[in-house]
Design a protein that fits this description.
Number of strands: 18
Strand content: 5-15%
Shape: globular
Number of helices: 22
Largest sheet: 9 strands, mixed
Amino acid sequence: MELSVIIVNYNVRYFLEQALQSVQRAAAALPAGEVEVFVVDNNSVDNSVAMVREKFPEVKLIENQQNTGFSTANNQAIRQAAGRYVLLLNPDTVVREDTFVKCIQFMDAHPDAGALGVRMIDGSGKFLPESKRGFPAPFVAFCKTFGLSRLFPKSKLFNRYHLGFLDEHETNEVDVLAGAFMFIRKAVLDEIGLLDEAFFMYGEDIDLSYRIVQAGYKNYYFPETTIIHYKGESTKKGSLNYVRTFYNAMLIFARKHFSGRQARLFIAMIYAAVYFRAALALVSGFFRRWSFFLADAALISGGLVLLKNFWANYYYHDPNYYPDSFLYINVPVYTLFWLGAVFFNGGYDEPFNLRRLIRGLLTGTVLLLAVYGLLPLELRPSRAILLMGAIWAVAATTALRTFLHFARSGNFRVGRTRPSNLIIVGSEKESERVRQLLALAQVPKNYIGTVAPGKDYDPAKSLAGIERLNEVVNIFKVDEVIFCAADISSDSIMQWMTRLGPSVHYKIVPKESLSIIGSHSKDSAGELYTIEISYRIASPVSRRNKRMLDLLLLPLVPFFFLFAKRKGALLRNSLQILTGKKSWVGYATGNPAQSANRFPSIKPGLLSPADALTLPVKDEHTLRHLDFLYAKDYDVWQDLEIVWKGWRKL
């Protein structure tokens, strides 16, 4: 057997389906029976296993009952592999039809090659620099950590990490291959050993590449074929978890392969990088998450101060009319009420959603007016300031978003995203199927038309043939192109992605699939259009409001306690609600783990949707349907209704 393809999967079912279809097409270029495919599933909960069994019965499936990590999972399949070559392939990739043939031909022609990697592009067609890398020696790590490699991308001195001085279109010997695509000679693995299972995630590709070179073989960067790799490592680089996991892998590598002064220097560099990157992640994460909140707070607070000065002079004719306490009590309290209400209305989850912003500010104003009369006299300086402050808050925050939106997009349609101009490249049959999928998924798009997959086309049904795709994109100002993989080769798709450039968004619909997949860059997670149900309870706003309601209902525990049948259990459960381990309302069926496999995960509840019914329900199917409706159409008022009707059951 020529080739064993190994894919480790963890909760990326739709990308896996597309990857396996591309593997099937690439395998068809080799004689029948010369390619075997393994999928090692690390305990996914997204029905990946069922999808593989149903659509790819020829795949050798290994089901793990826990997430064993990347190295361990690959090793499970490598031990069973019968091919002369082993390909470690990420599930979020698409290979070209010629990829396997060309890689085998190159390896056969270069007996000194232990492994090779190929040219990788992201979901927008841009070259991924991690396609070729150098060993992370101390100075290389220093340049990468502190940004010198980014400042001097073509420098042989400062950018040895991504070998930026090597042409992306030329075959070269390199140090490190990317774990997303490692084409390895099986005899070399038998000689040097399998992946080091001390690396749970990250670093195993560096370690394996290093051991291949140490054994006297060469690693090659081979750009004669290209693959799409949707989600690069940078999707996670902003998180503290990534910093910890990646640099811990580097520590393992340093301690394993270096000694003496070199090891100490490398480890010191890694620790410096950990603290530097962690601080950077904290600061950037804070400002990315709270930038609108801080800007709004500054605008509203500054406006209140100006209004106070204006009203004191204009109405009271006394610049010192308001006490100093107004600045350090009233201004912060008013601001926090308004912005807190915006926060809980989801105004910072979608900062350009003016409806949520204004609704939050109005809610905050109503709450402030309700509380105003309860405040001590010295903290009630003027209702006029409060009302003028509310008007200023709405005007200032709306103006800020309008200005920022105009700076980004050149128009004033804040919160009203223009539907993307969309074309579909494929046959009449597949294009119609894609249109139906988009309609079922309720994706708002401005459908322009279809481009036929060949030169011949019917002008009554298609805009043009595929050779004129660039003209169609330019004439109709197309924002998004969907390629039908059943009609167009992966090779052609990648060529067009590169030719049209990153200004257009690209997606691919696999043959007979119910999902449309793509990603605009390596810095964004993969995008997915699917007809599967969208659950409102999974949204950040719903989860936050559900948690807030849990806390707000806790003061009612003494009342519930008077009528509770199991008073001790109520007290223990109330403590768990306070600590976030339980909720007042949860699913009606099964334990939380079983329910989470069907619906978005939530905390176990003291009550369930069934407790709001007059008659008791025990039928499993009915209970499951109640949970489905609860998760799909969740609203905080549902929880209030369930608690109101079911509190006697506590």
